[in-house]
Design goal:
- It contains 4 helices and no strands.
- The protein is mainly α and 136 residues long.
- It folds into 2 domains: 78 residues, no CATH class; 42 residues.
- The longest helix has 38 residues.
């Protein structure tokens, strides 16, 4: 290869959006479950103003409203694109290893114990001081 020739360009391996489809589906399923719970609470609270809510009707309405909302959002290209972007960005996150996580948890526990001890000592000291002052 001479200096005038261009070296072949290496294209990075980029995962297609199809690789993340199942994660987007899980995202939507989680959203549906959360929406069912939220709509159920809202309908039950509103219904209580008029009387005792009928559980079957409330749950049925919650499921129907949540599924219709999920279907609408799935068909909306902007929302669907945003869901794929979120999943793609989350796939770039470097998650800690078990060893790193263990070390971080131990560090948090140690710092919490030290901080709690210091706060306890300050509290005991100021309590002793105020007791002496009130005794005067």
């Amino acid at each position: 290869m001479t200096d005038n020739e261009e070296s072949p360009k290496i294209t990075p391996v980029v995962s297609s959006a199809q690789d993340y489809t199942r994660y987007v589906h899980f995202l939507y399923l989680g959203g549906i479950a959360l929406c069912i719970w939220l709509v159920n609470k809202i309908i039950s609270s509103m219904w209580l103003a008029f009387g005792e809510p009928i559980k079957g009707v409330v749950i049925g309405l919650s499921i129907l409203i949540s599924l219709l909302l999920a279907f609408f959002l799935w068909r909306h290209e902007r929302v669907k694109g945003l869901a794929y972007e979120v999943v793609t960005e989350l796939s770039k996150v470097t998650w800690p290893t078990r060893k790193e996580l263990y070390a971080a948890v131990i560090a948090v526990i140690i710092v919490s114990v030290i901080t709690s001890t210091i706060l306890f000592l300050f509290d005991a000291f100021w309590s002793w001081i105020t007791t002496k002052l009130y005794a005067l």
